[in-house]
Design brief:
By secondary structure, this protein is mainly alpha-helical. It contains 9 helices and 2 strands. It has a two-stranded antiparallel ribbon with strand order 1-2. 37% of the residues are buried.
Length: 193
């Protein structure tokens, strides 16, 4: 086995590389892609979308690539395209946790809590202490009018990571909000892949 690199964008806006194993036959393709990837560290979402789409022409069943493409599409507010890509990824890789998390993000961005909750529950069964997923679960609770539950979950995140910027931000919005949560929480961060 050799190592290939995949571009990931953290939900704080920091870009990094994640190493993933792949077969020896793909080494040359991925090495060339890695060279281009290094040049794309400061690339726009549109550039990264084009790069992922190019990779997917050679690796159409790769669920991680599809999930990363969806994250870029979400960042460009192309929710319909992201939903399609994620549903395709989950069709071939039903246990791909990151795809469940991103699909929940799409549904929450549309205000469809009912559709998001099963994906969040699945992701939390796999890792009940994932701060990014817990923040999304708090968002879902807030959208459903469960402010106390949302506050509890956000405080749980801060107990795990006292410096979690998004949890602080969302808790501040929650506590500062007097009325409904129709626009109370934002979905700025994504799941970890």
């Amino acid at each position: 086995l050799c190592v290939r690199a995949l571009y990931l964008e953290g939900r704080t806006g920091h870009r990094s590389l994640q190493l993933v194993t792949s077969s020896m036959q793909e080494y040359e393709l991925w090495f060339g892609s890695l060279q281009r990837l290094i040049a794309y560290q400061n690339a726009s979402h549109d550039t990264m979308i084009a790069l992922y789409e190019s990779w997917l022409t050679r690796h159409s069943e790769d669920g991680v690539l599809r999930t990363n493409l969806a994250a870029e599409l979400i960042a460009r507010d192309r929710l319909d395209d992201a939903e399609r890509v994620l549903l395709d990824a989950l069709h071939t890789h039903p246990r791909l946790r990151a795809a469940h998390v991103e699909l929940a993000r799409v549904y929450l961005a549309r205000g469809n809590t009912e559709a998001a909750v099963p994906h969040l529950q699945w992701a939390l069964r796999v890792n009940p202490r994932d701060p990014a997923v817990l923040v999304l679960a708090a968002t879902a609770a807030a959208y459903a009018g469960e402010r106390d539950r949302a506050e509890h979950v956000l405080r749980q995140v801060l107990a795990l990571d006292p410096n979690h910027t998004e949890a602080h931000f969302q808790l501040g919005r929650l506590l500062g909000s007097d009325v409904s949560f129709g626009g109370g929480l934002t979905l700025g961060s994504s799941s970890s892949l």
